[in-house]
Design goal:
The complex is a heterodimer of chains A (about 550) and B (about 450). By secondary structure, chain A is of the alpha/beta class. Chain A has 24 helices and 13 strands. The longest helix of chain A is centred in the middle third of the chain and has 21 residues. Classes of the chains: A alpha/beta (about 550), B alpha/beta (about 450). Chains A and B meet through α4, α5, β2, α6 and α7 of A and β2, α2, β4, α4 and α5 of B. The complex binds iron/sulfur cluster. Iron/sulfur cluster (SF4) sits at the interface of chains A and B.
């Protein structure tokens, strides 16, 4: 790895803005969040994946992956970030390095040609070039290629140097942020600025959730000027240096960007979340207060409070009808971080019981909040192996799992309702109105009548009772030609049969509730079984026809 | 017939192929109690896993040796050993299938040699079968990785025989990457109908068919039992489905003298007839079971009904070679015209035999461009083709991997008489679903003047 990349990594690891990190010892801190990975027990994406996730939501840019097939071929077009404009970000561009390119050292030249081709074909505002493991290993200098291409073609070509093997997704997020700081932010001036301009950073993974919040900002007259979040345009990244306040949404992944915006351009930042009612209100309050501190009209604060009061009242009224449908349900929460506490509070408010929550990536402060909300720390757990989670769910230790996609099938295979609250989910749950959508999703999940049917025993789980009969085989197997006589069993009949024991046409093997399905007019079956001398006519009327032939062997 | 076109450009737009290691992983998932292990950086594994999960809607066990830059340069033998150890601790698999990736192949280590040393040293690994296939991402696609993995398995597990000692009722069924679990199931059913017992390799029809089992397992949930694989040496014959399986069939023949036949396609009347003819010969059954004869009769009828909707239709197809060939020839035999064919890998003799003028070795960008130019009326490719279909306003018949925007991809069957019938219906119905209301303008006439109309004229597209 080049020295430049090494020092960049050391730099982002030493993140003073991350309280996770400032609590660590000096030496530990320098090492940042890098944990050695265990072969055979590692999960999660690489740094390139992280960089791509952070930047792909910039919708009008051409994202060009300099790699052999695997990096882009297996991974493009796989996230739910929405766009209200260009669809270019959905197109997967890659140099698709072949063996020949690698052996002959043609990587850089191919990248340069690919840049020309993509600019000619698409005329994008910029091309982001992602480094990956193989080109990094063979020493391709994407910085130099990007520089040359930018000069020759006149379209900014931005190197995003986060080859997979340097670390985790999280590190990749940060390196992507660094690339924006180094090459993009501050390169375009907005036509005008207002005291109500903000930056949004980090809401990159969810399908259109920003749009659930934007109406609130619109009503307050707040403009999203700069954005490193869903539905962003290249120019919005380039203009970030002119906003008044930066909001980091939900995630600390791009905290280096927020902090350096403050350092370089004096733009203060705050962390907030738009999940849950109280957090949404809190975020709006903080945003307005900081804008006023930076010169916005103080009346903004009053308007903000009025908006919050109105919205909160309206939303609780809308949530109330869900109370009887979800109250008393036990939820197991398994998410990566800290973003859901406010959601938890709202669920509890509606009578749901949160029986456990993971604190895998949570900070001490986050854990404090869990205790505050849940009353004690009994319900916190760290990691749960899929096997254990499966058992817990299978034993019906919960009524609902809310988690990211990774544990989706653990829940479903345990026949447990599941609601997606992470990453690639398809429904947005942000802001006030998002809570209604979330509750609707929960209601739809836990109250589906399917669960009961699925959990009911299979026909063969209950031993045969009276009325069971094995029909004699007739004819011959069409495949083997073996005549039925060779395999026919005598007709058997469950012991203790007495006409009086059997209701007229009961489906005794059916589980509760399904009996009506089996109801048939008493006369529909003729009691004529040649080889069943012991059957009484009354019992026979309860049986389906037994004149089955060989169907399939 | 067709010649291969290799566009000379540096930029690939919208990849068509999935990677070779991913194909290998799928093969390993068709072995019972198995875990596929990628020898590479963890990111590649994460991508592949998401890809598989999105297609099968299943949790998929897939692990990584978690190489970083340092271990890549120093060599990854220790990482492999540690990974095997950890996997055994965690899930006690019967089988671990290792696939290399671009990263470790670029460095170029001697994994088979290292692995041999590890397994010799670690006697405690004895009850887990470990197999390694070389599947660099930069050479070929999913189909190639699949083929390499099957070859690696038979090389490692089928014993060398000097004499035939056949079980005359047993045949090997080697399944290519283009077969879905339902496809395999259909072939198994057909073979059994002749009183033969297939030994399926790999058998994703029992592991990735989508089922709820009674417990959670960290390994594959079905598939060919490892202990059964050596029995392939005793089969009377090998049926290799897909040209990609030729190599593996040849290895079995070389090692155990089991003769084979490659079926380049088992979709469409003639290809299935050929398979049935072979099964008749193998089983000595002159008069196939009524169910088989009836299925053929029904395929004939389906063809009669479908040919109104297939004849002359311009089709664009993009897929791995075996799938492209199977579906392409089946449609061509029904009078459709293949106007665009795009494929992923040059390592196949099928390109010559494709019923069209040229086959492009390319991506979905080529596919979209070429389909538009040639005036295609229907697109066939995997789910990533949905953007092209949307832009070109054409119906998309989803085939191949991945299919993530429809559920039940594992249940789609296009092989045998029954699957071919379903395929014809599927195609014909997609064509029928395209509504075009003719207008006078379509024939060059002037439209009815607007002033005569009481209701506003409908907008058309
Ligand atoms: S780990 Fe490296 S090779 Fe694998 S996907 Fe990430 S960047 Fe690509």
């Amino acid at each position: 790895m080049s020295d430049a990349l090494k020092s960049k990594i050391a730099d982002v690891f030493d993140e003073p803005g991350c309280d996770h990190n400032v609590n660590k010892e000096e030496r530990q801190r320098k090492k940042g969040c890098a944990k050695p990975l265990t072969p055979g027990a590692a999960a999660g994406g690489c740094a390139f994946d992280g960089a791509k996730i952070a930047l792909q939501p910039i919708v009008d840019v051409a994202h060009l992956v300099h790699a052999p097939l695997a990096c882009e071929g297996n991974g493009w077009d796989n996230r739910g970030a929405a766009s209200s404009g260009s669809e270019r970000y959905r197109t997967g561009f890659t140099t698709d390095l072949t063996e020949l390119d690698i052996v002959m050292g043609h990587g850089e030249r191919k990248l340069y040609r690919a840049l020309r081709e993509v600019i000619e074909a698409e005329q994008p505002p910029a091309v982001f070039v992602y480094a990956t493991c193989v080109p990094a290993l063979i020493g391709d200098d994407i910085h130099a290629v990007c520089k040359a291409a930018t000069q020759t073609f006149g379209t900014p070509c931005i190197p995003v140097n986060a080859p997979g093997f340097v670390g985790s997704k999280n590190l990749g997020n940060k390196l992507a942020g660094e690339a924006m700081l180094d090459h993009v932010i501050g390169t375009v001036e907005p036509a005008e600025t207002t005291p109500y301009d903000i930056n949004i950073v980090g809401d990159y993974n969810l399908s259109g959730e920003l749009w659930q919040v934007k109406p609130l900002l619109d009503r307050l007259g707040i403009r999203i000027l700069g954005s490193l979040a869903a539905d962003a345009r290249y120019k919005q990244v380039a203009m970030m240096h002119r906003a008044k306040v930066t909001m980091m949404v939900c995630s600390k992944a791009l905290i280096n960007v927020a902090r350096k915006l403050e350092e370089r351009y004096g733009i203060p930042y705050f962390e907030g979340s738009f999940y849950g009612i109280s957090d949404t209100s809190e975020a709006l309050r903080t945003m307005c207060r900081m804008l006023v501190e930076r010169g916005a009209d103080a009346a903004l604060l009053d308007r903000c409070e009025a908006l919050i009061a109105e919205e909160e009242a309206a939303i609780w009224a809308q949530l109330e009808p869900f109370r009887p449908r979800v109250a008393g349900r036990r939820v197991l929460l398994y998410t990566g971080g800290h973003k859901s506490w406010s959601v938890v509070a709202a669920l509890q408010e509606l009578g749901m019981e949160v029986i456990g929550t993971s604190v895998r990536k949570a900070t001490e402060e986050d854990k404090g909040r869990v205790v505050e909300i849940m009353g004690d720390d009994k319900h916190m757990f760290d990691n749960m192996a899929p096997k254990d989670m499966y058992r817990l769910l299978k034993e019906a230790g919960a009524d609902l799992l809310m988690s990211g996609g990774r544990s989706q099938f653990v829940a479903l295979k345990a026949k447990m309702p599941w609601v997606d609250v992470n990453q690639e989910k398809h429904e947005p749950y942000a802001g006030y109105m998002g809570m209604v959508d979330l509750l609707r999703a929960i209601d739809r999940a836990v109250n589906n009548p399917m669960w009961e049917e699925l959990r009911s025993p299979a026909p063969w789980d209950t031993p045969l009772e009276q009325g069971a009969i094995l029909p004699a085989h007739r004819g011959a197997c069409p495949v083997t030609g073996v005549p039925a006589a060779a395999t026919a069993r005598p007709v058997t009949y469950a012991p203790g049969e007495a006409a009086g024991d059997l209701p007229p046409h009961a489906a005794t093997v059916m589980p509760n509730g399904a009996a009506s399905l089996a109801e048939a007019p008493p006369s529909s079956v003729t009691p004529s079984f040649p080889t069943s001398p012991t059957l009484s006519p009354a019992a026979l009327s309860a049986l389906p026809s037994s004149t089955t032939d060989f169907e399939d062997c | 017939m067709a010649k291969l076109i290799h566009p000379r450009r540096a930029l690939s737009t919208n990849p068509l192929k999935s990677s070779a290691p991913l194909g290998a992983a799928l093969v390993y998932l068709g072995i019972a109690r198995a875990i596929p292990l990628f020898h590479g950086s963890q990111g590649c594994t994460a991508f592949a896993m998401v890809h598989l999960v999105r297609h099968f809607k299943e949790a998929v066990p897939l692990q990584t040796t978690a190489m970083n830059e340092v271990s890549t340069i120093l060599g990854g033998a220790d990482q492999i050993e540690e990974a095997i150890e950890n996997l055994r601790k965690k899930a006690a698999p019967d089988f671990i299938g290792i696939a290399s990736t671009a990263l470790t192949e670029t460095r170029g280590e001697d994994v088979p040699g290292e692995l041999k040393l590890i397994l010799r040293r670690r006697a405690d690994f004895a009850d887990t079968q470990v197999v390694y296939a070389s599947t660099p991402d930069f050479d070929g696609g999913m189909q190639d990785g699949w083929a390499r993995a099957v070859e690696a398995i038979v090389t490692a597990l089928v014993p060398e025989m000097t004499e035939r000692d056949s079980d005359l009722r047993q045949v090997n069924l080697l399944c290519g990457s283009h077969l879905t679990p339902a496809d395999i199931e259909e072939l198994v059913r057909l073979i059994r109908a002749f009183g033969l017992e297939p030994l399926v390799l790999p058998d994703i029809s029992t592991s990735l068919d989508g089922h709820v089992s009674d417990d959670w397992s960290g390994c594959s949930q079905g598939g060919t039992p490892v202990a059964r694989i050596p029995d392939a040496a005793r089969s009377a014959f090998t049926l290799a489905i897909g040209e990609q399986m030729r190599g593996a069939a040849q290895i079995i023949e070389d090692r155990a003298l089991v003769p084979y036949r490659v079926f380049q396609s088992v979709t469409g009347l003639k290809p299935v007839d050929a398979l049935v003819r072979t099964l008749m010969g193998l089983s000595g059954v002159q008069d196939p079971p009524p169910s088989v004869k009836r299925d053929r009769a029904r395929l004939l009828d389906a063809a009669l009904d479908a040919h109104f909707h297939t004849g002359g239709v311009k089709v664009a197809i993009a897929a791995d070679p075996d799938l492209m060939f199977a579906l392409g020839t089946a449609l061509a035999s029904m009078g459709a015209e293949i106007v665009t064919a795009v494929t992923t890998t040059p390592h196949t003799p099928l390109i010559d035999r494709m019923p069209c003028e040229q086959v492009i070795l390319g991506d979905l960008g080529d596919f979209e461009r070429q389909a538009a130019e040639a005036g295609a009326q229907l697109l066939i490719t995997h789910s990533h083709g949905r953007h092209a279909a949307h832009r070109l306003h054409l119906p998309l018949l989803r085939a191949g991997f991945p299919i993530f925007d429809r559920i039940g991809a594992q249940d789609v069957c296009r092989t045998g008489y029954r699957g071919s019938r379903a395929f014809l219906y599927e195609f014909a119905n997609l064509m029928q679903a395209q509504h075009h209301r003719a207008t006078p303008q379509d024939f060059g006439a002037a439209p009815i003047p607007e002033e005569f109309d009481h209701d506003p004229q409908p907008t058309r597209h």
